[in-house]
Amino acid sequence: MFCRPGRKAIQDVQRSLTSSLHQTSYVHRFITTGSYSEERQRSRPSRQPVAHDVPPKPHRRPASISNETTNKLHVEGRKLLRPYNLALQLKRLAAEENLDGAIERLQSTPRDAQNTAVWNTMLSLCIQAQRYQLAYQLFIDMKRRGFSPNCTTYTTMLKGFGQVTEWSTRHKQLEHAHTLYAYYMKHVESAKYHDPDNVQEISTAPLVAYINILGHAGQHQKMFDVYFAMDQEGPLAPDRYVFTAMLRAIANCLQNTPPNSDEKSIRNIAASDAKYVWLQVQKTMRKQPEFTLDSQLITSAIRALTFGRPSDQQLAFDIAAEHLGLTKPGDRTPPQLYQHINCWTLDAALFLCLHTQKPRLCVHFLRFVMERLDLENPGMRQLITRSQTRKALLAHSTLAGLGSPNESAEAIRLLEWCLERDAIYDIPALRPDYQTYHLVLLTCYRNTDWAGALHIFQLMTGIQVGSLRESDLGKKPPEVQRRPEGRNLRPTAETMSFIMRTAIGTTDWKNHADAMWIAYCIGVDKLLENEETDVYYRGKLARAITAIAARLLEDDVYAKHHQWLTALRLQAEGVIRNLGHVPVPEVEKGVLGSLATLNGAGDFDVRSGGQEHQNAQVVAFY
User: Fold this and answer.
1) Residue 608, number of CB atoms within 10 A of its CB
2) Which of 312, 369, 435, 491 has the fewest CB within 10 Å, making it most exposed?
3) Are 502 and 450 in contact (CB under 8 A)?
């Protein structure tokens, strides 16, 4: 047996031998791995150069972070910066209005923390700040640093440039847009060669954005060049978004070109283009069963055809009947609303009626929808909004201006329908505003409906008309109905101009007195002093006040109010002297044509069944 010191010495020797063997093993593995790697490098064939006729790959992924670098950073106790975190930093700096700092941060960050998505984020931030030239410079810098743009890059850039609507002074940026389109087409060519199944990189989204730019810039020939350069089938074939962008561009061109200008030939060409695009839509629907229409495409088609020739407008009516269910009176088609009808398509159809001077058909279309509207369904509560009711009210005022009686009563029913539905279902988009009330007051003025005008004034302001006489010019303030906030609207100069002119039209001095009492209660002298109000209606109000005050000053019944009436008359005369030339608003202008001409169009006459039948329809619809 060994003693204790002897056993300890033997254990030390064993540990020494074990350590030596382990070191020899590590050295052997290190030397073997090194020589094997060198041998693999020598035996690896050299890369052959790529042929010049082969397009480059569309998207080159930046160098990934190696495990060695990751381990080294973790060993040194550092935290690795990921591209996602870098993008968040850029957004945070941009939110602090430090866009230049975000750019400096991106450009000074190691390449391992960057990728194409991060650069796309930076480009989007520049676009949001409307720094279009800076965004294009960063796009060039992105390519110079070796990050290949992808489809998202081009979509971001071209959509950003599409926010510009006035290109007459932005020639350089327009050239940049053309360059981006050329780059994207090369990108698509490369993607088709290397990865034809990659639908994410072969998309029509950049082309749609580019077509919008060409439409705003007025370069319609280039727009059609882009269309004809697209594929007949596949992911780059024209879809509903492409057709919508083209029709929208044509509609803007037609709307901004006066019909009687020297550019009439341009209007005719654009109208023919709109019809051609719609025929291509129908052709695509026949060839591709999966191709579906949407409300935006139908809206753009109707608006583009609205500004065309009579044959184009008839095609627009056919589209409204076929895809929306809006048929003319007497049509044998079963009356129903189709799936594509919404607030945009309905608005386009109503505008079509007004533009083609068919106000009765406009009223008929809105009644047709109102009769079939199920407001218990929340999805249908946005189908009719103020925009649609205004067009119907404008149609009523147009008919009243052409001599049609009882239009004010129908306009009031429509307004009350809106108020009732808003009170029941709380639909802010349907709630009448100043313009809505004023259109009804305009209809009452043209029909000389004083009672209707007072009723609308009460609905608008909450002032109880019955208490006006009891107030006796200030002895007691008139009663005001209490409503939720925002429901009672303060009368303006435009409001009072309609009230005063309607009273004058009745030639009844009692109505004149009522109008002057209303003017006193709401402080009409303040409206005359306010120079920020509409000049036209301020002048109309002043002339009406002058006429009514002169009539009341001749009557001894109002002798106790002569001082106030005289001062108000002098103030109104001063306003008239300082007016000068005042342009007439479009809504106050007369409409070409006559009521007989409108009624003669039997296809669009909702009153063909006689006055009694028409009144029954009004009750049913409203």
Assistant:
1) 13
2) 435
3) yes
- Three-state SS for 600-616 is HCHHHCCCCCCHHHHHH
Of 294, 297, 368, whose CA–CA distance to 331 is shortest?
A: 368
Q: Which residues pair with 463 in a beta bridge?
A: 480
Long-range contacts of 567-576 (CB under 8 A, 24+ apart): 568/519, 568/524, 568/525, 569/545, 571/525, 571/528, 571/529, 572/528, 572/541, 572/542, 572/543, 572/545, 572/546, 573/542, 573/546, 575/528, 575/538, 575/539, 575/542, 576/539, 576/542, 576/543, 576/546
**Neighbouring C-beta atoms of residue 313, cutoff 10 Å:** 19
Q: How far is CA 329 from CA 22, 55, 388, in A?
A: 99, 60, 19
Which residues are paired to 480 by β-bridges?
A: 463
66 pLDDT higher than 70: no
For 91, residues 6+ apart whose C-beta sits below 8 A from its C-beta are 121, 125
Q: What phi, psi does 204 have (nearest 5°)?
A: -90, -5
Residues across the chain: 622
| Nearest residue to 467 via CA among 481, 485, 456, 486 | 481
- Work out the pLDDT band at 466, boundaries 50, 70, 90: confident
Burial 327-343 (b: 16+ CB within 10 A, else e): bbbeeeeeeebeebbbb
pLDDT score at 133: 94
Task: Give the pLDDT confidence score for residue 301 in this predicted structure.
Answer: 96
| Encoded tokens for 369 | 């929808």
| Matching residue, tokens 């398509």 | 345
Single-letter amino acid code for the residue at 272 = S
Nearest by Cα to 274 from 289, 260, 288, 253: 253
Residues forming a β-bridge with 145: none
Q: What is the pLDDT of residue 579?
A: 87
* Direct distance between the N- and C-terminal alpha carbons of the chain, in angstroms, rounded to an integer: 119
CA dist 369 and 376 (Å) reads 15
Alpha helices in 195-239 (DSSP H): 205-217, 220-228
Give the separation between CA 366 and CA 359, rounded to whole angstroms: 11
Residue 463 is given by DSSP the state B
| Residue-wise DSSP of 504-521 | HHHT-HHHHHHHHHHHHH
How many helices, marked H, and strands, marked E, lie in the chain? 28, 0
Model pLDDT for residues 529-565, shown as the tens digit of each residue: 988 889 999 999 999 999 999 988 888 877 788 899 9
CA distance 450 to 478: 19
Measure the CA–CA gap between 35 and 327, rounded to whole angstroms. 86
Q: State both tokens at 367.
A: 């009644």
**Count of C-beta atoms within a 10 Å radius of residue 528:** 21
Amino acid (one-letter) located at 478? P
Task: Check residue 535 and give its pLDDT.
Answer: 92
Contact between 89 and 173 under an 8 Å Cβ cutoff? The reply is no
User: In the numeric block, which tokens belong to residue 76?
Assistant: 């040194």
- The residue written with tokens 């089938």 in the block is 233
**What pTM did the predictor assign?**
0.79
Please list the residues that pair with 383 across neighbouring strands. none
